[in-house]
Design brief:
Largest sheet: 2 strands, antiparallel
Order of helices and strands: HHHHHHEEHHHHHHHHHHHH
Shape: globular
Number of strands: 2
CATH superfamily: Ammonium transporter AmtB like domains
Strand order of the largest sheet: 1-2
Number of helices: 18
CATH class: Mainly Alpha
Distance between the termini: 30 Å
């Protein structure tokens, strides 16, 4: 770019970036009045879980809605009715307590996945960058958490109403008021309630829900740290952390999980149950994967990755055992990711959690097996890194359909993902996209495939009422659950395809614009000399392995 062009684009980039920051702050502070004016819900936890919640518990199935209403209406009259009502109150609160505890425990498991990501990404990178890579995995947790607390949670869930994952009856939901959603032509884009977790959402179930959803967001934010590893300046990474947690992740998340426009495609256009993603193949993984693609394009490949003719050079990681142990940790954490997305285990059909867990396991197994056999057939060697990515690809792909498919189809979905990840890694590499850990392929490509697979393999046995479609009518007749094209509903596939296009376009374009602007106003990459030396000392001021001589045979030597 010539000097004249730089003098034009850099000030423009600064203006646009500052404009985005100002707009974000104005949106946030426009809600500060809520701290004084909005009523405080159940922050003490004493009013959550009463007789009406007992109707959602299996043990209270014998009580009809009319009977429950009679108990409520007469609770202050005869002592007998009052006693029964108190018993039902206890059942109701225990139901809620069970579900909240499940949500918290599985949220803690998802948080532990950060350790898995840290080990996988660090192990698949070179030793001279190890401290730098692992600290991007560490610091994205507090950075992302603060961004999600400031505005991300409100944008994603601030108007939640119809999306099951945004507040099923089993745990209660965010307080819903009219006008709490920003929409364009009736298509919901963002919520407008809950900034800074203010008094209007000062509620025991909402705070638990925040914890669970925050660690999901952190998974998305972590994905690009692997794709952009070994050449990302730490200061630029920190700014990115607020971008993804405040804007990139929550906006698409609202469309799917916050009752936004994609979730409502079923109600508004008759497209199945609207776009359905049980635990985040698109919301979490594909968004992270296509942000990673945009970042990798802007930041460019590592020094020495490509020859002058464009042919790629292999750059092996320094610690395969570390990466494989990290993969096991991620697989364990996925039992928080997918079964946890039931948001409870008591009442409301939540016993489906066992099917979710088994499907998750099976897809990971077939993904790993197919990747293993593919690499052996193609190259004559078993590849540890690709076997690990095959297992993760199966997990990513099954994340959206895990609650809606049977065991056979879970195995098929995982197997297809195991094949796709192998093809995808070589596809991007041949096109100059340097992704040290395969994050674009594992999370982006296989995330979109998993999301689409809901519209193919969902068998209709679960999901009645999802996004407000197929719930019991006035006669008490319950509609069919989420159903894919193989089981008779082509419209669900159309909804999934629309959601996929929106996901790719939003994640990639918003991230590409952000990284482009960021590159104009601050350096994205360290100097070539720092990259060649390794980023541990120049950026972190500490070596990961100070007692060992590091022999890097994969990059050209500078000055020799």
């Amino acid at each position: 770019m010539n000097r004249f062009a730089k003098t034009l684009t850099r000030p423009l980039a600064r203006v646009l970036l500052c404009g985005w920051l100002v707009l974000t702050l104005l949106t946030v502070f426009a809600n500060v009045r809520a701290w004084a004016d909005d009523p405080v819900p159940d922050s003490g936890g004493t009013a959550t879980g009463v007789a009406k919640n007992a109707a959602n518990a299996g043990s209270a199935a014998a009580f009809s809605a009319d009977e429950l209403k009679a108990f409520e209406d007469n609770k202050d009259k005869p002592a007998t009715n009052a006693t029964i009502t108190k018993v039902l109150d206890t059942i109701g609160q225990n139901t809620i307590a069970t579900n909240v505890m499940w949500m918290l425990l599985t949220g803690f498991m998802v948080m532990f996945m950060q350790a898995g990501f840290a080990m996988v990404e660090t192990g698949f990178c070179r030793a001279k960058h190890a401290a730098h890579v692992i600290m991007t995995n560490f610091m994205i947790y507090p950075i992302g958490m603060l961004g999600f607390w400031i505005a991300g949670f409100a944008i994603m869930f601030g108007s939640v109403a119809a999306s099951k994952i945004g507040g099923p009856a089993a745990i209660g939901g965010l307080p819903v008021l009219n006008g709490n959603e920003f929409s364009i032509g009736g298509f919901g884009i963002a919520g407008l309630k809950g900034f800074f977790l203010g008094p209007s959402v000062y509620d025991v179930t909402v705070f638990g829900f925040f914890l669970f959803q925050m660690v999901f967001m952190d998974t998305t934010a972590t994905i690009p740290t692997g794709a952009m590893a070994e050449r990302w300046k730490f200061s630029a990474f920190m700014v990115y952390g607020f971008f993804v947690s405040i804007l990139a992740y929550p906006v698409y998340g609202h469309m799917i999980w916050g009752g936004g426009g994609l979730a409502m495609l079923g109600q508004s256009h008759g497209l199945g149950h609207g776009a359905v993603d049980f635990a985040g193949s698109s919301v979490v993984h594909a968004v992270g994967g296509f942000i990673a693609l945009a970042g990798s394009l802007i930041i460019g490949p590592r020094i020495g990755k490509y020859n002058k003719d464009g042919s790629p050079n292999p750059i092996p990681g320094h610690h395969i055992p570390m990466a494989i142990i990290g993969t096991f940790i991620l697989a364990f954490g996925w039992f928080g990711f997918n079964p946890g997305s039931m948001l409870g285990v008591a009442g409301g059909g939540n016993l489906r959690v066992t099917i979710v867990a088994v499907n998750t396991m099976l897809a990971s197994a077939s993904g790993a097996m197919v990747a293993c056999l593919f690499m052996k057939a193609k190259f004559g060697k078993y590849d540890p890194s690709m076997m690990a990515n095959g297992l993760l690809a199966g997990l990513v792909a099954i994340t959206a359909p895990c609650a809606f498919v049977n065991a056979r189809d879970a195995v098929i979905i995982g197997a297809i993902a195991g094949f796709l990840v192998c093809i995808s890694v070589f596809f991007w590499e041949k096109r100059g996209i340097d992704d040290p850990v395969g994050a674009i392929s594992v999370h982006g490509v296989c995330g979109i495939f998993g999301f689409i697979s809901v519209g193919i393999f969902a068998d209709g046995t679960y999901g009645a009422g999802w996004n407000g479609v197929g719930a019991a009518d006035y006669l008490g007749v319950v509609g069919k659950g989420v159903t894919g094209i193989l089981y008779g509903d082509s419209k669900q596939l159309i909804a999934q395809l629309i959601g996929s296009v929106v996901c790719i376009v939003w994640a990639f374009v918003s991230a590409y614009i952000f990284f482009w602007l960021q590159k104009k106003v601050m350096p994205l990459r360290p100097t070539p000399e720092e990259e060649m030396e390794g980023l541990d000392m120049p950026e972190m001021g500490a070596y990961a392995y100070p007692d060992f001589q590091q022999l890097d045979q994969t990059s050209p030597r500078v000055g020799h």
